[in-house]
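Appendix C reproduces, verbatim, an entry submitted by the partner laboratory led by Prof. M.T., so that reviewers can inspect both the input and the predicted structure.
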Amino acid sequence: MLKNMLAAFHWCPTMRYVAYQLITKWILFSGMAFLTPWIASASQAPPDTQSMTLNACIETALENSPELKVSYGEQAFQAEAISLARSAFLPRIDALSGYTRFEYPMRVTQAHENNEPGVFDRDLLETGIVFRLPVYQGGQHRAELAIAQLGRLQAMEIWKGTRQDLILNLHAVFYKILQIDEVQRSAMASMQALEAHKTTTRLQLEVGRVAPVDVMKIDVRLAQIEQQLSSIQADRKALIAALLQLMGMDRANLIDVDIRGELKAHPTKLPNMALARKRAENQRPELAAARLELDRTKAGVKAARAVFLPQVDGFGTYSLRAAIPFDDDHEDAWSAGLQVNLPLFHGGANIARLRQAEIRRKQADERHRAVTLKIETDLEQSLARLTDSLKRMEVNRKNMTLSSETFRIEQAKNEDGKSSINDLLDAQAATLAAEVAHSQSVMDYLLARVEWRRAVGTPLWPVAETGKE
């Protein structure tokens, strides 16, 4: 019956056009009615799925990231190094005890008067307390304390840099997931449009308006989009795994992650490079860490030179000496004084340490220069990416509008029999490519903004508003 109706429409262009429009709209409406519950269920996260926004991902990563914890633990280690360096200024008190067995009887207690024989025995028991106070060490202890204090500050700056890199990586992965979701939605919309047009083409085929190859071409295009969707889903799973790794979350204890966010950008004017250089000089943690490392090596040179100077220590002892078995002939005595130690020859060890310290200082100076050059490169590259992504985003936005309108026109012309299926498929492919390119450029722009803030040294947490530096 339907075939007879279409045969009648074949001889009446006006009725044929109206019928094709009604059938196409009915197919689209039915397809959307069928897909609406599925789309709604897909947008709602299952009960065992954890919804994550960008802020939630960053908060979780700052709390659980093992790399960040290791970097933060270095600060605690350097804090203990400060306590260790300060202990060198305080007196040392040691308790000593020992037992000695001689081959022949020896004097175990000293004579305190002339003609006093003392005590002789083969067994000697000696115990006591030794007190030592550093008076002057040539500045070595002060240099070591400065090294420890600078080390803690350096560890803090390194932790800041690690934190910045972690947040930047989270932005990159999170934005890429959002971009993949945009591509997936565009591909699914293209499939729905092609499925609707395929139904119309089949009806046209039955009345002899199109060739069978036209339906085959649509099927080929649908298969290509299905392959793209399969690849997109695989990439998304890999990105989710990378996101969980950055957040320090155990995949075995989590069923799935539902990413919540929008890939939108509000373009702003390009930043000022001269101002950015000044800010980066004061804000980049890598540069601050390099400066502190240079200061540490300079203090290390001072500590190495200090060993050539005299060292003065105050000391005091209280001891008890007795034979075995213990009797009244034991001796207890105390002593106190100053001791001066001047190193004369240690086999070249002190000179070698000084040379090592000088080499470390030169290395730190070159690392500081390398970091300075890298910051300049980071600023130039991030500004170039920001400029490029901004231009591409504007061009792709216009191209997406034009390609969408072109596809609509080609679809209407094909329904009227005024264009070939190849023109329609080309317009559809161009529309999908334009939407993918636009989402990619938006993602690149958003990430370029974050990279710019990272290059300048602006803290990436809390997250700034989209499009603002």
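The first strand starts at residue 49 and ends at 52. Additional entries are available on request from the coordinating office.
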